Amino acid sequence: MAWIDCRKTYDFVLHSWIIELMEMSGIPDNVINFLQKSMDEWKRSLTSSGEDLGDVEVKMGIFQRDSLSHLPFVLSMIPLS
Q1: Measured distance CA(2)–CA(64) in Å, rounded
Q2: How far apart are CA 57 and CA 72, in angstroms?
C-alpha cells in the first residue's frame, strides 16, 4: 500500500520528466514543443512588504488551476499507477 499526496505532486514534478513522459506517451511533437517552450518562460514575482524583489524562474512543478496543468499532472501519475 502506498499514499500519494496529490497536492504535492503539482509542486515537485520535474519539467524534464513531464517532457519525457509526453514523448513516451506518443503526444504530438508540436504539443510537446509548445509545453516545453512555455515551461521555459515560467516565472514567479517575489515581493516583500510591497517591495518587488525580482523574478524567479520556475524549474520544477506545475501551475495549479491552469487549464493546461491537467495533462502534465495525469502523465506524472501514470508510472505510479
Answers
A1: 24
A2: 18
Residue 54: strand pairing partners: 46
Q: Is residue 11 part of a domain?
A: yes
In the numeric block, the cell 499526496 is attached to 5
For 59, the 3-state DSSP assignment is coil
Amino acid occupying residue 29? D
Grid coordinates belonging to 46:
517575489
- Asked if residue 1 belongs to a domain, the reply is no
d(CA 53, CA 74): 34
Total tally of structural domains belonging to the chain: 1
**pLDDT tens per residue across span 42-69:** 877 889 998 999 988 877 777 666 666 6
Q: Is residue 51 part of a domain?
A: yes
What's this model's pTM, rounded to 2 decimal places? 0.64
